[in-house]
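Hey, resending since the last one bounced:
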Amino acid sequence: MKAETYGLRGKGVSLISIVLICTTIIIWSWEKTPSLNVSIPSRATMQLPSENISIVSHKEAKTEAKRNEKDKTSKREHRPDFVNDSPQRSSLISEKEDNNWNNATDNKVCNYAKGKWVPDNHRSFYSGFGCKRWLSKMWACRLTQRTDFAYEKLRWQPKDCQMEEFEKSKFLRRMQHKTLALIGDSLSRQQFQSLMCMLTSGKKTHDVEDVGKKYGLARGKGALRPNGWAYHFLSTNTTILFYWSATLCDVEPIDASNPGSDQAMHLDRPPVFLRQYLHKFDVLVLNTGHHWNRVKFKANRWVMRVGGMPNTDKKLGTMGSAKNLTIHSIVSWVNSQLPKHPGLKVFFRSISPRHFVGGEWNTGGSCDNTTPMSVGKEILWEESTDQVAAHAVKGTGIKLLDITALSHLRDEGHISRFSISAKPGVHDCLHWCLPGIPDTWNEILFAQI
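The structure tokens again:
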């Protein structure tokens, strides 16, 4: 009897197991067969959307992957390469910052040269009364007899995109373990002094040391000032330097033993300083323009050379042609060096405009406006108004730092008659008051690196 009982129980258990297995198979079939959706119990019906979502997500993932790959390609083509090449990109560039590189419509790179000047009463990178360590007195208009300072309260607003807000700590982190060099004329020197003031807020700091000697930047015998400056920020291992090269070409005495010798000006040869220290630079900003005139050539005893020989090409006899040759030569040479220095990012800054009215600096020219011509005006054209610089960098790895048109609207920002170094009645309508327009040049530079 016990054996029969166990047998019946065993058959019952087997029957129940078979029923459960069959039920499981049927439910599984319902779940996997779309045509049976109508008769699937409510619980099974709730599971189907999750399967559909999974299928859609898989397709979306493929589409998103393709889109991301396309975006990456687009960013490689359109973004400034400095971000992509920076080994500290992930820690220095946030996602919000990353988007600022490409805010323009239709995925176009922001054209910072297009836009308008807008009022900004909170604008103050540094005080015009301070920054005495970096800022030359002749450019600190707050220290002169000038009484109107509305020019300090305007901000450049690009059209169709947002320009990344300048922050000194962010700039230094982005330039950590890097060197930025500005090479050019006195307008480049103004940009250098502006940047130093912006990075220190014009205040004294023990974080900055003079490293000019490392680059051979020292005041020569009888010189009013050294041929450049270099400063090192200890906290981020960042170096900012300026080197004076008014024409961006190599200049050397024809007779080195004669102090009064004419100076050979090699139009097709880059300055020795640039050739010697290029490998140390991570960001390079070049400019030239306002020294290409007969007065400067005569005063400096510059004599043109091409191919190491005296110039015999009459076409280069004009200042414009000689300048064009030099700009194209320096851009071409630097571009040829980029493969040797893959981390180097180079900008050629377009020319800073003059605003002399009624003559030149030595013939009664003036610039007395206190209300900027920028009121109600907007820069809308795509091409730079400095066609020489724009054509020179086209098709190269050098970027144009285009500041010409936006600076042209700011005729009230010049030192004007308040220069402390000029003769009475002589106006400076070339250089800018600081704080002032060159601060905006550095904002745009920051946004591009």
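The chain has two domains: 2-74, 89-448.

Sorry for the duplicate.
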